[in-house]
Amino acid sequence: MGPKQPPAKKQKTDEARATILKYIITQNRPYNSTDVYNNLHSSIGKTLVGKILEKLAKDKEITAKAFGKTTIYFPNQNADDIPSAEETREIDVKIASLKEEASVLKAEVTKICFMICLEFTPLTLSSFFFFCILFLCW
Question: Rounded to whole angstroms, what are the CA distances from 21 to 62, 78, 87, 121, 123?
C-alpha cells in the first residue's frame, strides 16, 4: 500500500471547487481560468483553478467553450430565466412609468434649484434675464 493522501488536502480541493462554482454562478458572466484565479485573489492555486473548471465543465455544472487556445467558462443558462412576453410587457410599462416619474422629479429639482439661486443671488436686471433664460432652457 502506498501512502494515503491526507484528508485536509481533499477538503481544500472540495472547498476550492465550491468557491469557484459559487463565484462563476454569482457573477453570471464568462471567465477564463486566469480571470477566475486573479478575481479570487490567488486564494486558490492557478493549476487547481484550471483543473476544477475543467472538472465542473465535464460534470456539466458549468459550460465551457474553446476559442483557439483559450477556454471560456460560464454558468449554465436555462430557458426558465427568460421572461415571458407578458412579463416583458409589464417590465416595459414599469420602465416607461419610472422614466416619466424621473422626468417629473427632474423638473421639480430644477425649479427648486432655480428658487434657491434666486433666494441667494442679488437680483439685478441682467441676472434676472439670465435666470429666466436658464429656467426656460431647462
Answer: 8, 17, 30, 60, 64
Phi, psi for 61 (deg, rounded to 5): -85, -25
pLDDT tens across 16-35, in order? 999 999 999 999 999 999 99
Q: How would you write 32-61 as a 3-class SS string?
A: CHHHHHHHCCCCCCHHHHHHHHHHHHHCCC
56 touches 17 (CB < 8 A): yes
Chain centre to alpha carbon of residue 47? 27
Q: Give the three-class secondary structure for 67.
A: strand
Tell me phi and psi for residue 63, to 5 degrees: -110, 145
- Digit-coded pLDDT (tens) for 90-109: 999 999 999 999 999 998 88
Backbone angles phi, psi at 110, to 5 degrees: -60, -45
d(CA 32, CA 45): 14
Question: Is the whole model's pTM more than 0.70, yes or no?
Answer: no
